[in-house]
Amino acid sequence: MKRLRIETLKSKVDAKIKWCREKVLEKYNHMITAEIRYDLSGTSRTGVCKYKGNIIRLNPFILKEYGDDYINTTVVHEFAHLVVNYIYRYKTRPHGREWKWMMRFLEAPPNRCSDYNMQTVIENTSMKVRRKVARPYLYKCVCREHQLTSNIHSKMVRGQRRSCLKCRQRITYIGMI
Ligand SMILES: [Zn+2]
Ligand SMILES: [Zn+2]
Predict the structure, then answer these.
(1) What single DSSP character describes residue 20?
(2) CA 48 to CA 72: how far, in whole Å?
(3) Distances (CA, A) of 172 to 24, 35, 164
(4) What is this structure's pTM?
């Protein structure tokens, strides 16, 4: 699968939302506005929508890895929530009949969950998983602290010497973060 640049993917998201909005406008004579934010990271949330302010929050790392699949499922999934909320307010369950119908209307699979392989996302994108600190080994020189990876730390344990580029003093181990 060819990986697209994030800017290209974001404009594809915009195009998809526009297509959905027009389809809904035609049927319900109402333009659903949606503000798209790309501020989700981590492995637990693939997409989120907030009814207040009609905000759709997306995970740019999954977008990067899954591209069109993500756009055609998760993006539409969240948009469908906004439409259903507009039509029925809170009188329906989040993934109830009305939402499923809306998904089909928007030509997307009415599945509640998507099965993204988050391990692949972590490996192929630059997503950092919060639980794991990439540079957990703390060293110090005269002027500041340095954080090193376990790879470099084990070299240091085996006798490698490193000095600070700024003060030129040797750095020494203090402990883990
Ligand atoms: Zn949902
Ligand atoms: Zn220094």
Answers:
(1) H
(2) 15
(3) 63, 49, 10
(4) 0.71
168 CA distance to ligand 1 middle (Å): 54
Angle in degrees, 0-180, between the axes of helices 97-105 and 76-88, rounded to the nearest 10: 120
Residues near ion ligand 2 (CB < 5 Å) are: 141, 143, 164, 166-167
CATH class as words, domain 6-124: alpha beta
Rg (CA), the chain: 23
Which ligand sits closest to the CA of 85?
1
Does the active-site annotation cover 26?
Answer: no
Question: Whose atoms come closest to the Cα of 79: which ligand?
Answer: 1
Residue in 26, 35, 65, 78 annotated catalytic: 78
- 117 CA distance to ligand 2 centroid (A)? 41
Mind listing the pLDDT tens digit of every residue in the chain (177 residues)?
A: 567 799 999 999 999 999 999 999 999 999 999 999 999 988 878 999 999 999 999 999 999 999 999 999 999 999 999 999 999 987 888 899 999 999 999 999 998 777 888 888 888 887 776 556 678 889 999 999 999 998 999 999 999 999 999 999 999 998 887
Ligand at minimal distance from the CA of 74 is 1
CA separation for the pair 33, 83 (Å, rounded): 9
Domain boundary assignment for the chain: 6-124, 137-176
Distance 142 CA to ligand 2 centre (A): 5
